[in-house]
Amino acid sequence: MKFTRTANANWKGTGMEGAGTISTQSTTLNKAQLSFKTRFADGVGTNPEELIAAAHSGCFTMQLSFLLSELGFTPEDLNTEAQVTFEDGTITKIHLKLEASVPGISEQDFQDTAAKAKEICPVSKLLKAAEITLSATLV
């Protein structure tokens, strides 16, 4: 399977006073606001780190669902928060915080499968430059 997805960013003005928008091919994001405040303070809009967190949490969670299904388990609920750390101009770490309800799975099988999903999810592979950690809780 091969496909390409697109997104577009537009910026006008300086880095500090300027502003921009981000749009995705699916239009889920359609001219979402982007500015200094949305990235480095609490402005309304989005930012690259938040978008990376969204992409990583979504990819990891879907990958985990596929792996659990291959093992014969049907997850009732998989909830992943991706925490992207930005320090001194660099994304230094991503922590995936998973809470899951998977009937019938042992703690060891759950931990092993979650770790495998973290390693093989396409976004994890792309982001190998950053430290990616995982804490998984079976509830």
Question: What does the secondary structure layout of this molecule look like, with pairings?
Answer:
Layout: E1 7-12, E2 19-24, E3 32-35, H1 36-40, H2 48-70, E4 77-87, E5 90-101, H3 107-120, H4 122-126, E6 131-138
Parallel strand pairs: 5-6
Antiparallel strand pairs: 1-2, 2-3, 4-5
Strand order of the largest sheet: 1-2-3
The overall pLDDT average reads 94
Which blocks of ≥5 consecutive residues have pLDDT under 50? none
The computed structural class is alpha+beta
Helical content (DSSP H or I, runs of 4+): 25-40%
GO biological process, one term: response to oxidative stress
GO molecular function: peroxidase activity
Protein name: OsmC family protein
Task: Describe the structure in your own words.
This protein is of the alpha+beta class and 139 residues long. It folds into 2 domains: 7-40, no CATH class; 48-138, GMP Synthetase, Chain A, domain 3, CATH 3.30.300. 34% of the residues lie in helices and 34% in strands. The chain contains 4 helices and 6 strands. It has helices at 36-40, 48-70, 107-120, 122-126; strands at 7-12, 19-24, 32-35, 77-87, 90-101, 131-138. The strands form 2 sheets. The protein has a 3-stranded antiparallel sheet. Helix 2 crosses helix 3 (107-120). The two termini are 34 Å apart. The model has no long low-confidence stretch (mean pLDDT 94). One of its GO terms (biological process) is response to oxidative stress. Residues 1-11 have a biased composition (Polar residues). GO terms for molecular function: peroxidase activity.
